[in-house]
Amino acid sequence: MIITQHSIPAEYAPTIFFNHCGRMPWSGRSQSDFSGAMVVELLKFCEEEGGRQGRNDANQDHVGARAQAPFHEAFLGGYPKQLWESAYWEGVSEPRQFLQLVALDADDVDALEAVHSKFETDQQLIDALPKDGEFGLSWVQRMTRWGYNRAGEKLKQFVRQGLLIQVEGKPNRYVMAPTRNLGDDHGAI
């Protein structure tokens, strides 16, 4: 993520660019140019990206490194800044898994493999998902060691099949649908 501040940050959004999706549509715009839909999109971004940055910092033992929102405290009444920073600290406090890497001998290899599950079928992955409460795309990434795109596509497939339900208003957050198994007709992942 590349962030460039405007010369008048209290009145203009920073320009935010990602390698995977390019420039955010509201980047660099004056707050007077924001439509209602753009404000919603911006706040959604703040919640998602702030939380993601918090989880990343916590997992890398750099808590607080990216807690400061890239939005000025006066921009849009301070809501983007407040939402980002609140989401950041929520992301920091989410339960997470730590894997400590040490020099391994032959006896330790089995223990290391037990930390990360191997999923050979869709049913094995469904069985491993949390049954109570919501979970996110990053949870599936950690469990499977898959990249963002692969994990995201698999979760979308499960939503289409009626196995998961996307949490309203929270992209990349899911809950289990009422009990249903894939059956024997679904093969390998």
Keywords, separated by commas or semicolons:
single chain, 189 residues, mainly alpha, Arc Repressor Mutant, subunit A, three-stranded antiparallel sheet, 6 strands, elongated
Explained architecture:
The protein is mostly helical and 189 residues long. It folds into two domains: 2-93, no CATH class; 118-176, Winged helix-like DNA-binding domain superfamily/Winged helix DNA-binding domain (Arc Repressor Mutant, subunit A), CATH 1.10.10. It contains six helices and six strands; from the N terminus they run βββααααβααββ. It has helices at 36-59, 79-93, 106-115, 122-128, 137-144, 148-160; strands at residues 2-4, 15-18, 22-23, 135-136, 164-166, 173-176. Strands 1-2-3 form a three-stranded antiparallel β-sheet, with no helix packed on it. Strand 2 (15-18) and strand 3 form a beta hairpin. Helix 1 packs parallel to helix 2 (79-93). The longest helix has 24 residues, at 36-59. The chain is elongated and about 55 Å long. The two termini are 31 Å apart. The relative contact order is 0.10. Residues 97-104 and 108-116 have low confidence and may be disordered.
State the gist of this model.
Helix content is 41%, strand content 10%. By secondary structure, it is mostly helical.
The structure class reads mainly alpha
Instruction: Choose one word for the global shape.
Output: elongated
How do the SSEs run, as a string of H and E?
EEEHHHHEHHEE
Tell me the radius of gyration: 20 Å
Number of strands: 6
Fraction of residues in β-strands: 5-15%
Q: How many discrete structural domains? A: 2
The order of strands across the largest sheet is: 1-2-3
In which range does the helix fraction lie? 40-55%
- Could you tell me how far the N terminus lies from the C terminus, measured between alpha carbons in angstroms? 31 Å
